[in-house]
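USER: My hope is that you can spare some time for a protein that puzzles me. I am handing you a single protein, as its sequence and its fold in token form. Walk me, if you will, through where the backbone shape changes along the chain. The protein I mean follows directly.
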Amino acid sequence: MKKNVTDILDIHTHKLEADSLGKSIVNYPLLADSPLYMPFAGDVEVDRGYYYSVGIHPWELTEHNAGQLLDYLKQQLRKKQFVAVGEAGLDKLAVASMELQLTVFKAQVRLSEEYGLPLIIHCVKAVDELLAVKKEFRLQQAWIWHGFRGKTEQAVQLLKKGFYLSLGEYYSDETMRTVPDERLFLETDNSSLDIEDILCRAAKVRGVEVEVLRETIRRNIQNVFFRA
């Protein structure tokens, strides 16, 4: 069981709590399983020793469940164990229409601002739409692009727009070296790797000692997810 927020290095995982070893912000399932059209996960309890993110993933979204998902999301965000909204975002490969995705994503942006929580973003082939939404709002909360695998040029574009980038098992070394210390997060997502493996590789790529990068990631997590 996690005893201290300074143990956390991984801002996004789908591992079970016990498997994350207290080093992760666990992605809480709004639905009982995550391909499409699955029932609500109403019997899933949060473990008070851990912290969670929760959001409506575009893959889970349908015309029939959007309202219920938003209501259920609001209920979960009232619990102090939830420290981020997400995954939330836009995906042109998802079944849901872009119109519906935009409506629900904007609702989650508002919830992020209302609850004072950072937003963990999933985006596939919808960068222009995502940036247009960002421009609509006067944002106070951090937007974190999770599992970033894009080219360095796209990373630079997003950094200029104020994004944080979270890198996992797959990325280009050039991109890892491009992200400044204060905008970098690490994650395991669906990887079988431990966050320590990802940390060690990232430190090698960035040319810094593991403990130096560990402190950088801890400081960013404290400042974005657990600020007073």
